[in-house]
Specification:
single chain, about 110 residues, alpha+beta, Multidrug-efflux Transporter Regulator, Chain: A, Domain 2, three-stranded antiparallel β-sheet, two-stranded antiparallel ribbon, about 50% helix
Length: about 110
């Protein structure tokens, strides 16, 4: 979420969330492929609607772009391992940075 300040009032601006139909519209992937990637753990939903629909945040587009590039030379199992390693590295970088700046409690890790 993005914080904004207006006349000494701070409020949270919610992140844009996308339904699977939005992902189908904006990417070359079919609904079934996106569902399979979610089940396999290649992409993760951020939230669910009350009606049970998956919602994805903007980071899913970067991950899908990586998948497109990796699919040229890698299997889905190899892609899953690579993406997991990337997430671990990014998570550890955030944690080290937070510890160095003293903001460990103030920053959410995704």
């Amino acid at each position: 979420m993005i914080q904004s300040e207006l006349k000494n009032q701070t409020f949270q601006i919610p992140a844009k969330l996308y339904r699977i139909g939005d992902l189908v519209r904006y990417t070359p992937f079919s609904r079934q492929t996106l569902h399979n990637y979610t089940i396999m753990g290649l992409i993760q939903e951020t939230q669910w609607t009350e009606g049970g629909h998956r919602l994805y945040d903007e980071s899913v587009f970067e991950k899908l772009s990586r998948i497109i590039q990796l699919k040229k030379t890698k299997t889905l199992l190899e892609i899953k391992r690579i993406l997991s390693e990337i997430e671990k590295e990014e998570s550890s970088k955030i944690t080290v940075s937070q510890l160095q700046t003293g903001n460990a409690e103030n920053t959410a890790i995704n």
